[in-house]
């Protein structure tokens, strides 16, 4: 370790991060590459020797003073298990496929112990790697989210309860693009419990955990009342599930008892689940208890601990119940004669967590003055206003600011932006990036508003930078115009990293793919090019996908489901098999996904057989719908493997044959004394270390797509010949100073 110096680069970065974009090679670097390439003229190269040649040619920055090699004397397995969370978060499957069984096992266990938040595209291919190495039986030491992607036919009857308990701790929303896997997971769990059709008891629910979130409303309604604990883990309940929840609560058999006996502590224990309680139940709750809980929910929302959607749903239902109660009382004659019954709203009034109970939307219209609104817009909008009240505030702002809301106030109206039209936004002055970020930070859909807000910013000489793109998120790219997307400089697009555009319409995916090609098209190495382009391949043409198939990129199934469905129709079975590589078996897990189902219907029986699929393109368990529950009328099929069986490296993956392990990884290929070299940022071919940091030269223009590479040195040890990439969040590569 270097005390007070730059961050050390772990050997794991060779697997966990891609090499930097290197659009140009210096003469010196080209010579080094020719030397390395020449080593393989007669066959495969020892990766340790190739790496040593590359290091000799590229390591020009001197070693920092005070470096200690004490930390490098640990075993190779320790290095894989002890790396930090941010590095593990950048896990990439292709180079990891070269790991030995023990190294992969240690890596997965490190991810579990550090609770690394991997994404679906990482988990799906990692699950296939683990299965290929026979590691699936070690599931108790693996991340719960990883178990969701495992081959369920290999779950043994003797351990299925433990597997279910561990998997149920995961987030099933990660399976949004794998509907058949999601369905099979539930059926496997119920089969293990011996309860495919019977009522779920408390012990069943303890094992099922979040898997209950996918269950049909009828099963929830008849389950043991402890099911409330399971439902608290759901991201969202469907309308039938909400009805089942309210039926359970109304029955009075839950820990809360009948609605008339509910208390504050019991309601608070429900958390966000209380936002689904119906108005008909709130009417039955004691008034003092209801008001105390309302106050606590508003305080939780204002503290940022409750989402806007949950808060507004709760407030709307609660106030509806209060209105029902008030309407049943006789009205006093004085109320009709006074437009503002509650008294004028002041700054102090707005600090009351019961403000919305005391002032309904009609009273808000009557009692809120213009001066108070101008001076207290922020505390007012910190309340989870119902939609009707939001429209009242918007109308008042229009009267106060007839020529458009001023920029300093725009940053406060995030929750109202969705109400504004393009013509209204055209009256605004947006000169600051912070204003753009604030306006687009809402968690509601802003289709027309996104384009209009950005255009006002661009009209005032604003630019779309990488920081702005990262701040507003990839989903906002979906609603930018094609012209605005084209205006993004390629260098800014590169710096923004991987943006999630999976929810974009196809036209935007096409435009963003074109922009990504401008940013990453000059990348020389096909593996690196694929890694940078992966999030944007939903707009790729058929020629690009055929090229990637020839390059053996082993595309993950999550990325595959986001391809253009029309383009996918032009791919042959051979193209798809080669494109997915070791992940081809995952087609079975996603065969009911609309994109894949459409492609499968275009195939004949023989082609389906080549893919290892039967002729029923709907899947054996039927489609599982995200957040909509799975009907229990689906024929149940046991997925449990027999208790007997052998575990080892020959265990099949999700339908793919084991790939040949061509090379040992770095720790096995080099003497431990050379490992210290990898702890320093080795300057790449177009980096400059003259100022103490290695900076990367880049060009905005696109170059030709990389040529397909054969899996020789490129597919095995060549990934060891790349300069270690930047640490996450760094803009330069650290160079040690002498």
TrEMBL record:
Determine the domain of life of the protein's source. Answer: Eukaryota
Q: Does the keyword Signal apply?
A: yes
Q: Where is the composition biased (Polar residues)?
A: 729-738
Q: Tell where it localizes.
A: Membrane
Main location per the UniProt record:
membrane
Q: What are the boundaries of the region Disordered?
A: 616-636, 689-738
An example Gene Ontology CC term for this record: membrane
One family name in Pfam for this protein: Mesothelin
Q: Which UniProt keywords apply?
A: Cell adhesion, Glycoprotein, Membrane, Signal
**Keyword Acetylation among UniProt keywords:** no
One GO BP annotation is: cell-matrix adhesion
The family note in this entry says: Belongs to the mesothelin family.
The protein here is known as Mesothelin-like protein isoform X2
**Species annotation:** Mustela putorius furo
Q: What is the lineage of its organism?
A: Eukaryota, Metazoa, Chordata, Craniata, Vertebrata
């Amino acid at each position: 370790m270097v005390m007070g110096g730059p961050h050390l680069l772990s050997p794991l970065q060779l697997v966990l991060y891609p090499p930097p974009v290197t659009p140009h090679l210096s003469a010196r670097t080209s010579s080094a590459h020719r030397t390395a390439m020449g080593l393989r003229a007669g066959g495969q190269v020892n990766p340790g020797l190739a790496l040593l040649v590359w290091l000799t040619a590229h390591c020009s920055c001197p070693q920092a003073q005070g470096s200690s090699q004490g930390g490098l004397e640990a075993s190779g397995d320790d290095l894989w298990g002890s790396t930090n969370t941010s590095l593990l978060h950048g896990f990439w499957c292709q180079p990891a496929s070269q790991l030995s069984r023990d190294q992969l096992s240690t890596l997965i266990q490190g991810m579990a112990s550090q609770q690394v938040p991997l994404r679906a595209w990482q988990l799906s291919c990692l699950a296939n790697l683990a299965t290929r190495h026979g590691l699936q039986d070690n599931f108790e030491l693996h991340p719960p989210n990883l178990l969701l992607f495992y081959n369920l036919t290999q779950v043994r009857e003797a351990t299925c309860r433990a597997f279910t308990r561990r998997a149920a701790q995961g987030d099933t929303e990660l399976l949004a693009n794998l509907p058949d896997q999601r369905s099979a997971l539930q059926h496997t769990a119920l089969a293990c419990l011996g309860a495919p059709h019977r009522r779920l008891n408390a012990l069943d629910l303890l094992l099922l955990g979040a898997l209950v979130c996918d269950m049909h409303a009828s099963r929830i309604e008849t389950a043991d009342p402890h099911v409330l604990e399971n439902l608290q883990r759901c991201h969202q309940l469907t309308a039938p599930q909400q009805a089942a929840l309210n039926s359970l609560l109304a029955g009075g058999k839950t820990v809360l008892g009948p609605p008339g006996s509910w208390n504050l502590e019991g309601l608070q224990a429900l958390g966000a689940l209380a936002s689904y309680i119906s108005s008909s139940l709130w009417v039955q709750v004691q008034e003092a208890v209801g008001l105390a809980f309302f106050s606590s929910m508003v305080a939780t929302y204002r503290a940022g601990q409750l989402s806007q959607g949950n808060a507004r749903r709760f407030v709307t239902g609660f106030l509806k119940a209060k209105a029902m109660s008030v309407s049943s009382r006789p009205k006093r004659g004085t109320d009709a004669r006074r437009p503002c019954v509650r008294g004028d709203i002041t700054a102090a009034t707005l600090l009351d967590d019961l403000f919305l109970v005391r002032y309904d939307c009609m009273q808000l219209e009557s009692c809120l003055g213009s001066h108070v609104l101008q001076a207290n817009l922020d505390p007012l909008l910190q309340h989870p206003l119902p939609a009707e009240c939001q429209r009242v505030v918007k109308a008042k702002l229009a009267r106060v600011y007839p020529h458009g809301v001023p920029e300093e106030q725009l940053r406060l109206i995030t929750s109202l932006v969705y109400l504004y039209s393009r013509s209204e936004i055209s009256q605004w002055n947006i000169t600051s990036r912070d204003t753009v970020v604030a306006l687009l930070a809402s968690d509601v859909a802003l289709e027309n508003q996104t384009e209009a807000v950005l255009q006002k910013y661009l009209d005032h000489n604003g630019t779309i930078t990488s920081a702005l793109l990262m701040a507003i998120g990839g989903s906002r790219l979906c609603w930018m115009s094609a012209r605005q997307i084209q205006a993004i400089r390629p260098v800014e697009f590169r710096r923004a990293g991987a943006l999630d555009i999976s929810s974009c319409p196809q036209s935007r995916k096409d435009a963003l793919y074109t922009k990504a090609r401008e940013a990453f098209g000059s990348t020389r190495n096909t593996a690196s090019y694929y890694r940078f382009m992966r999030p944007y391949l939903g707009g790729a043409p058929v020629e690009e996908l055929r090229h990637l198939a020839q390059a053996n990129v082993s595309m993950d199934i999550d990325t595959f489901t986001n391809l253009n469905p029309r383009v996918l129709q032009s791919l042959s079975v051979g193209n798809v098999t080669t494109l997915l590589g070791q992940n081809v078996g995952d087609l079975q897990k996603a065969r009911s996904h609309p994109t894949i189902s459409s492609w499968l219907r275009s195939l004949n029986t023989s082609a389906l057989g080549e893919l290892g699929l039967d002729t029923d393109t709907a899947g054996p368990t039927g489609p599982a719908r995200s957040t909509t529950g799975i009907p229990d009328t689906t024929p149940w099929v046991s997925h449990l493997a027999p208790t007997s069986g052998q575990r080892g490296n020959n265990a099949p993956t999700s339908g793919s044959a084991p790939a040949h392990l061509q090379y040992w990884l770095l720790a096995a290929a080099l003497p431990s004394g050379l490992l210290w070299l990898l702890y320093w940022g080795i300057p790449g071919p177009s980096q400059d270390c003259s100022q103490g940091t290695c900076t990367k030269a880049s060009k905005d223009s696109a170059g030709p797509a990389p040529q397909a590479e054969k899996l020789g040195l490129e597919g095995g040890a060549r990934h060891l010949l790349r300069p270690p990439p930047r640490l996450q969040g760094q803009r330069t590569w650290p160079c040690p100073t002498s």
